[in-house]
Known about the structure:
Bound molecules: flavin-adenine dinucleotide
Structural class: alpha/beta
Radius of gyration: 22 Å
Oligomer: single chain
Strand order of the largest sheet: 5-2-1-8-7-6
Strand content: 15-25%
Number of domains: 2
Amino acid sequence: MEKTELLIIGAGAAGISAASAAWEAGCRDAVLTDRLPCPGGILPQCLHEGFGLAAFGKELTGPAYAERLADGLAKTGVRFLPGREILAVTKEKTAVLSGSGGVEEIRFERLILATGSRERTAGSLPLAGTRPAGIFTAGQAQEMINLRHWQLGRRVVILGSGDLGMILARRFTLEGKQVLAVLEQNAQYGGMARNYHRCIEAYQKLSPLHRGVPHSAPLSPDDPGDSRHAPHHGRDGGGPGQRLARTSPLRHAGHGHRPRPGAGSDTRPRKRGMALPCRKLQQDP
Length: 285
Ligand SMILES: Cc1cc2nc3c(=O)[nH]c(=O)nc-3n(C[C@H](O)[C@H](O)[C@H](O)COP(=O)(O)OP(=O)(O)OC[C@H]3O[C@@H](n4cnc5c(N)ncnc54)[C@H](O)[C@@H]3O)c2cc1C
């Protein structure tokens, strides 16, 4: 049975960073493993910019950020075992992995679980009906569009104005879909101000169905653009509980809209296939 001082499960941003930090701290026997064939976790499907400000002082897309993290990891001696699903971790400090080569076990002294999070599925949301075909979680939709290049219909309604909802509104618009509405139950959008400006204001102008936002709480002029829950200047003029108001129709990519300068880089055409930094890492054959 293979043994290692440190086993890290999950090669997303957290797992790669943990592995690099462990190496820097003097750990010379570490294994990083993931069920996916390449490192990066969720980052490869996040084509928008917004990553890396703290670590690299620059706004990067998800894939670019993943590549930089993987570049750093490649300079260490951490061993990367891709394509292994962790089935179990026992009290005896053994992890059971399943990969194309069959079931393996690794004994470890220390374990870092960096397996990310999981979206709540449609089944756990209060949706009407028993067969809600055509309803996707934001992460599912993002993966299908950005990584699989699938078409998900032509007319889209997005429930929730968090960062993901707003980023997806822009993505769908750029894909030539009609985003009928981004619906929000609260009085103001839920994501970052910068995403509101870059994704909703710059691309949609206004969804035809849109909850009102009070005028009384304008965006602070010294807001760095990242503050959550910063209200935008209200257009519908209403507060919570107001009826959904009809406003101007959406503008579509390729139909005369002009993205604002500084809009995120998933405004560029998508490239088929991902440039992922798999080969740079130490891997088992
Ligand atoms: C759409 C979207 C937009 C975002 N935008 C931003 C942004 O602009 N700026 C920002 O800073 N953050 C953003 N985030 C958040 C950020 O991307 C995530 O918080 C971060 O990438 C999560 O990293 P992680 O390593 O914790 O998890 P993940 O990236 O999910 O990685 C977990 C890894 O664990 C692996 N794994 C799980 N279970 C097992 C198992 N049993 N066996 C083997 N492997 C397993 C998975 O395959 C995966 O590779 C965004 C997130 C999303 C979804």
